């Protein structure tokens, strides 16, 4: 058996005593929340949590090998529930949230009351001296948000629905006002649907939370949220605070998503026989106007079902109900709406009736393009719609119709009328309609009648839609501006926006961040937080590079603008941080270099803005390992690394790769990747040893082990000879072909075990080593690590 390349390293006390301005990193925590949920969190710049008070929680802290940790809460400078750990060894490798690192999982008791605390981790030498610390502000909040379910309100979009009965079809907005939270603050909200009896949660979707008004709202309801076509539910909002506490605020509502059989165009009335005859498309009629009717099953009415169904009808005949109308054919725009309590509806246009006129039967005129044209005193003109945001005086309307063989009386309700002569297509009416202030909407109906000498003869009438007028002279308002290192958030309120069927009439849709360098950007995020309320966020790194003044403006759909200056002489940093590997003296470490101990490696980061290292990952080496490494901030943009478990690079292909990511406060990120060969500063190499493939210790004639590791004289940092039991760790490299027995401990490839070694009276150590895989040929490499040399003298 060729049992070769036995290597070990000794981490001497002198190395451990090197000064470091070091800190540990809190990687995250797990705990049982007051909501009885198992919670896992990774730290941010500040945290809000909701653990069960005075119960244990686990905190994960990364640090280098051969260090200790102290973890505690700070409240007004007073330490609470302090925990001290043992020395971090090679067995303290932790995997948490996808990261591998060396450190400790520390169980610490949560404080006994709510409030603001600091969670602090101190990094200690093995002698207990503090050499650095890391802390994070933590708000402990165990109280859920409060509100009153009676403040739930529903607004339909067009035709109907109430809080007691609504549907996705005509869903306008569900709103909860008056939400309060006295702890960590509100964070997000869900729309929830619960079983009406058991109150168990059926489904949920994201809803909107307006932090400025403490209002939750939902502006659309996907039908897939509801498990059945129709039924009673407890539905409303689940409101969360930043710590994870939540409360439910619901109302008992009948919600339906099922459709109904639509009204059928069933019959026409035959005046000659005084009977209803079945309707068919393009059937011949001999009188005009004519009576028509629609049919629906009585079983689909509210009267028949109680909780749901068509709300009204004209009259009932047997199993059907009917709605009856008189139309002048061809009719243009008249319609009627079949409604349910929940807002499900059917819009039925009388123009869908199609007929053939019998001999000698006159018809109504048909609608022409640009039925109404307007002309203003200022020289403007337009068609059926006018939308203005500046002073406008309309002085004339032109009313268009089809050329007919009879006179037509054209009437615009509330504004005036004129006569279209036989064979002509229009007439003009003089009006005086001024738009100059406020906001509003008025539709003026336009109806044409058959007439004689300007008086309707009662035969035909055709409503040619409306002249629609919209105006808005009120600019939106800026309610608040929040500036951070990398973004600007503006809350805008358009007081004219409604949540009903007019919701699209007065809106604000243009938001821009304007640079004095002649550049404007649109929002990166746009959230409608309530009726007429908008929260827009702009990333500052999208602005041009350089110093500039920054302002914001918002335009509504009528051209009204609100503007506000936000930043003066702002420097936009669009350059990512510059990362560099260097020695303690500042000399650059190039790709492929040899590193003698991680203490000879530094990371330099420079940037126009404040920048920080996000992560450092070491991978490769003989074991092809990968581990996250915590850093120590030495000041002036210089960092060093805490020690992970690393095998020496004794072959040319045993390189390590370091991958460093960093980001500045402007959001610019950079990455540095470099390879190097690694040799511990105090590596002792043992030459190749060959022995038989047997799993027992072989000895020579002097009863000494044939294969063993022998050290020189070991001394403490104070120069004393090593004596007494010494704690050591042995690691068998993962690519080993055989198992190894060291001092009776059998190691498998990749395994680390703790052993105890006893130096001789001269301070030397002899460690027998042999194969633990009888009959198997192969090589094995291992490392022995003595974290601290001690003396009993």
Task: Tell me what the structure shows.
By secondary structure, the chain is mainly β. The chain has seven domains: 13-140, Immunoglobulin-like (Sandwich), CATH 2.60.40.10; 149-256, Immunoglobulin-like; 264-357, no CATH class; 372-472, Immunoglobulin-like (Sandwich); 477-572, Immunoglobulin-like (Sandwich); 578-679, Immunoglobulin-like (Sandwich); 691-785, no CATH class. The chain is 1% helix and 51% strand. It is built from two helices and 63 strands. The strands form 16 sheets. Strands 3-2-5-9-8 form a five-stranded antiparallel β-sheet, with no helix packed on it. It has a five-stranded mixed β-sheet with strand order 4-11-10-6-7, with no helix packed on it. The chain has a five-stranded mixed β-sheet with strand order 13-20-19-15-16, with no helix packed on it. A hairpin with a 2-residue loop joins strand 37 (439-452) and strand 38 (455-472). Mean pLDDT is 89; it is low at 1-23.
